[in-house]
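Our consortium's second objective concerns turning raw sequence data into structural hypotheses that experimental partners can test. To show how far this objective has progressed, the report includes one record in full. It was chosen at random from the queue rather than selected for favorable results. The single chain below, 159 residues long, was entered without modification.
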Amino acid sequence: MDYYATATDIYGNNWDITTVATITTTGGGSFISQHKFVGTATGTYTIQVAYEDQIATTTVVINYATPTALSISPSGVVIIAGDSVDYHATATDQYGNNWAVTDAAMFTTTGGGSFISQHRFVGTVTGTHTIWAIYGGQTATTHCNHQPCYPNSPEHLPH
C-alpha cells in the first residue's frame, strides 16, 4: 500500500512532503521504500508521518492473505463405534498467519460414519477411515480408526 503525505500551511496551501517526511509503523509489516508499506502480520497498526514539528497518524488493518496451507486436528484418532470426534481446521497464509476456519471449512469422510454437525463426526463402521477438511482451495486429511463396540454382557466382552 502506498502512503502519501501532504503539508498544509496556515493559509490553506498544500504541498507533497512524501519524499521528505519520515513515515513509520508500529508493526504489521515494513516500508520497502519511502512510502510503500507491505503488510505481513494480521492486526491493526498505526502509520505515523513526521515532518518538521508536525505528526499525523492513521491506522492500517491487515487481514489474512489467501490460505496456502490447511491443517486438521485431532489426527490419528482411535474411537469406539458410536463415539464422536470434533474436528478443527486451521488455515495458514504465506506470511505464517494462522486462523481457525472450523466453522467455514467443509468436512467429509470416505465412510465409516457421518458428520452430524459442521465438524462433529460419529463413527459407526469399524476400520480406518479418511477425514478431509477443505477450505480456501486447500485440503487437509487425517485418519480415524473405529474399533468395535462390545455389548455390556459377559459373553460379548473381549477375553
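The partners drew two points from this record. The chain has a mean pLDDT of 91. The domain at 67-147 is CATH 2.60.40.10 (Immunoglobulin-like). Both points have been shared with the crystallography group to help prioritize constructs.
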